[in-house]
Write a structure and sequence with these properties.
homodimer; alpha/beta; 6-stranded parallel sheet; 12 helices; elongated
Chain lengths: 363, 363
DNA sequence: TAATTTTACGCAAACGTTTTAGTTAGAGGG
DNA sequence: CCCTCTAACTAAAACGTTTGCGTAAAATTA
């Protein structure tokens, strides 16, 4: 790979850039221009009862005409909050999480908050660093979905105890009591497994995230329950964990090889997460296995392309956008609440199972 | 759709949240504890020559022990910059842009900058609002990819003239002289069209973004050039513009209907953008057209799934991550540069054409 | 020893707000 | 005419830093 450079010379460029405050008129400028004190102007702008209607009108008109906007940095410093919320996600380049972020952004934006996004790339170290970074960025609250490597959540407990509002979404923890939003993971896996069983599959494998994160447990439970109802034990050899949730293709390749090497090899696979699902589909195709004849596949994915995959993919869709919205609404309520909140809820959003050809039964 | 609520009561939760400054030790606290002046402490921490080695050591040790972190808000206010950069993109829930953001974040993070992401959803109004919002958030620089609706860029000219560093990526403008990063759009469309011609297709349609944005023009030029070299005029009826770049499925549905209603209907389609490409594929499948027999398809997309689509999709891949990195590096150089920059470059990144079954020729 | 320089620190202003505690002028009451 | 009260405003401190300037003491020089 190489790349071209096109150079061009700019003749002018003389405006001296005075830090962030270019073109910015301050409250002090208004005061001077109107022969008022700074505090009068401030109060007039904030519609204080202490200021006469006449003065308010003059000040507000001048402010509007000169496009005055309060400096949010100064406001933050004075008021002790920054009107920004921190987001910690595994990766933005992931269908599900980018939809969540979309939802977060839409609510935050409306409320005048801005968001600071950080990615863990499924690394615990990175998660700790990101949390630390956000804290010192003086965020007013945090939205977080744990990394696959995260077992210890001391870094979150500490700041939560110190009063930072936190809302967990998707990959949550039991160890901190606060608002949480998840999809109905149990039902997602249950419905999918049930669908496979109903379609005549009997040897159903499960390729999933590491066992420590919440979604894995919940989904495993749904899978087990469906099997149990069909009179099956949960076959240990059929459950494969990907240490980094499929971040590396080798994780899934290994899992698949192991499954295919089994004496009694599976006739269907249930996968979790966008990454694992699409990679599994890719590998099955690569291995030349016919789907669904030789191997059925149902997976969690938020891609809009499930319909045009080869074969079209039976999938569990999670309401990512809604999750982002809800989590942010909860966080804002925590932030804006005057007195400490003592009652928390875990909001469970419904999932949807879309049945397509990758599980076209054998009945 | 409905959803469950699980309530739980939290017994404690008494820590009064004191704004953003929970647990935070200030420079003043250090000064008091060490019986020094505030300025001495500040200078010691910043390793000023004015402070003796002994004092520096004492101060730094105390700071480390008590986990002192400077308040970035106060620093921003004082120093006139906020160590944050604003991003304006059409949508984060888009393969290409989320990869770009990933690249942006990786560079910005390393340099200690944080990013504020905003989405235009292809709306001009929203773009203007976002830019305004970012300005008043005191960003130190801006990374922007124009919305499809954007024709007038006064809102950007103004702030650029006032000295805000801006770097354009992907959808750029000629009207502002600054650093820019794009993919080699001409070559992408040229190679794709050329490949179709070489594979025996002769009636090649082009479904693309609106004609006002840069990528559309560049790609159209590449498409035309390839046709010209094959002795073809650019057929006006074969070029279809989607006003919102495929945001709404109807845009593409209409384009497709018009193309298929043509007397001399096309035997191949070149699409641009993730959204247009995948939707086109979806619709062609829905219409029951055999790909590539009845209609070949090559499209711009950054999905990792091109291989497992039905059929596997010949596609033009743009280095999104690299684009984000490069744009951010350029922006940081602009921000960090002491004297005004007068020489700008437009960096062109190479694209890659992946040939798959959706264009399996008719030779 | 006196003059000068250097070292190492403190003081105070500044960034742009918000807010507490005054202050002034005028109105109203007695 | 004095007192009190209120309306409408101002002064100043504060948020947590950074930084130019001042200065005492120590070190150096003459």
């Amino acid at each position: 790979m190489f790349s071209y450079i096109v150079n061009c010379i700019n003749v002018v460029a003389l405006c001296s850039f005075t830090g962030m405050n270019f073109n910015t008129i301050t409250i002090r400028d208004i005061a001077k221009a109107l022969n008022l004190s700074v505090s009068t102007v401030s109060k007039a702008l904030r519609d204080s009862y202490e200021i006469s209607g006449k003065t308010k009108k003059i000040v507000n008109e001048y402010a509007r005409e000169h496009n005055y906007q309060p400096n949010p940095i100064a406001q933050s410093l004075k008021q002790g909050h920054s009107k920004s919320i921190g987001i910690v996600v595994p990766s933005v380049a992931n269908q599900f999480f980018s939809q969540v972020i979309n939802g977060i952004e839409s609510v935050a934006y409306e409320a005048g908050f801005n968001v600071i996004i950080t990615q863990t790339h499924e690394s615990f170290d990175r998660e700790v660093k990101n949390v630390d970074h956000l804290i010192h960025r003086s965020i007013d609250g945090m939205l977080i979905s744990l990394s696959t490597e995260t077992n210890d959540i001391e870094h979150l407990k500490r700041i939560h105890q110190q009063g930072l509002p936190i809302v967990f979404f998707d990959r949550i923890t039991e160890e901190i009591e606060t608002h949480k939003v998840i999809a109905d993971n149990f039902k997602g896996a249950y419905d999918a497994t049930r669908h496979l069983l109903d379609s005549g599959y009997r040897r159903i494998a499960h390729i999933t995230s590491p066992p420590n994160i919440s979604i894995t447990k919940e989904r495993l439970a749904g899978y087990s329950q469906a099997l149990a109802e069909a009179g099956q034990e949960t076959p240990e050899t059929y459950v494969k964990y990907c240490p980094h949730g499929g971040r590396d293709i080798s994780e899934i390749e290994n899992a698949l090889h192991e499954l295919l090497a089994l004496e009694n090899k599976p006739d269907a696979i249930l996968t979790t997460s966008d990454r694992i699902t699409t990679t599994t589909l890719f590998l099955l195709n690569k291995f030349g296995l016919k789907i669904p004849e030789e191997m059925a596949l149902v997976g969690y994915t938020n891609t809009t392309m499930a319909d045009v995959l080869n074969p079209s993919l039976t999938s569990i869709y999670q309401p990512g956008f809604e999750m982002g919205r809800k989590a942010t609404e909860m966080l804002l309520s925590l932030i804006l609440n005057k007195r400490p909140v003592t009652e928390f809820e875990t909001h469970v959003l419904p999932i949807q199972l879309f049945i397509r050809k990758s599980t076209a039964g054998r009945k």
